[in-house]
Amino acid sequence: MKLKYLFLPLVLLVFCSCDTDGSDYEIVQVATPQIISKTDFRKSVEIKPARQIEEAGKIYAYQDYIFIGDLAGIHIIDNSQPEQPKAVAFIEIPKNQDVSVKDNYLYADSATDLLVFDISNINKVTEVERLEDVFDFYDFEIPIEADDVDFQNFDFQNSIIVGWTVASERRKIDDPILFADGVFDGAGNVMNSGESVVGMGGSLARFQIVEHYLYAVGSHKMTIFNIAHLEAPVLEHSQYVGWNIETMFQADQYLYLGSTNGMFIYTLDNPLVPEFVSEFIHWEGCDPVVVDGNYAYLTLRGGNPCGQLESVLEVVDISDKSNPTLAGRYTLENPYGLGVKGNTLYVCDGTSGLKLFNTVDPRDIKLLKTLKDIQSKDVIPLQNSLLMIGNQALYQYEYLENDLRLISTFAF
Q: How many other C-beta atoms lie within 10 A of the C-beta of residue 50?
């Protein structure tokens, strides 16, 4: 997963030097935010005809539709015929990261705001609610090449960062550079509450709907919304849940939060105030997590800003929620998302393809097959098919014994 950073505002004082040979100076890449007022930002939401996907992000499945995140919104794909999926609309939502759907109401973040859309008529999607400033964290998408960030002219209360410019700047070597980790980056299962229908996200998601509540995580906070009235969510409260939280998965009334340095377990005994149960600590690395029964599966991707060099799949015994323990570790190449169905674990290993593991014995899982020559990012194991998204395509597969059969490829 692409790591995201949140920088604290700082004012840098640059002093002149009597140095003549320049040995006390260095060239620093400084990023300056491109900003827009929140007033103008909030006018940018628009329902548009289907258009080409520029850079696919996360995926979400709901009934006969697939939602694919992009640079500036959400593509709606009609999947009533999986052999021939068809793009039908695009919801332009600036600074969107996640989406969840319940009973034809779609929830999406837009930087600091939560938006609600009525999708009961997919050909006439309408925005019905916006809760402003309910998130105090969002992905700034600071350029990875930046050594420092200039926030001097950024008004955090009234502006939104929509882009960056990077320029070289001559600095004294001993001038401070402050670089702080963070931010906002939940997976879900199909749940039924009476006649309610809830969609399903991949392992990279940060939104999760459980009964009458929508949970959103990012950076160090969880934000809880009451969605008993679907068209009019109510912000209940936010709470600290750990540091560098990136993903969330729910199973059996527990929330499993993936962070860059561990997995946090919270119980939903009180759904309004999730309670911390335990944490499983590992070295730093990008960390999506999925759960099946008494075991959690985590991928840690190294060789990038997430942390360590090694990339692995970890199996964690969570039969005792208060004391999760490592049950196995397996080397991977470049892992991202993952999903589990039955006795098969599907792991997206980046440019190394999609890997299938047999989990009959979770303490000793076996590699069954690798689908090569594809780049895999995340999967959603639906009841009758597997969805996988890669760099330039959405793939759908039929389940076979210890294998998969390609149903269709929706290329971008």
A: 14
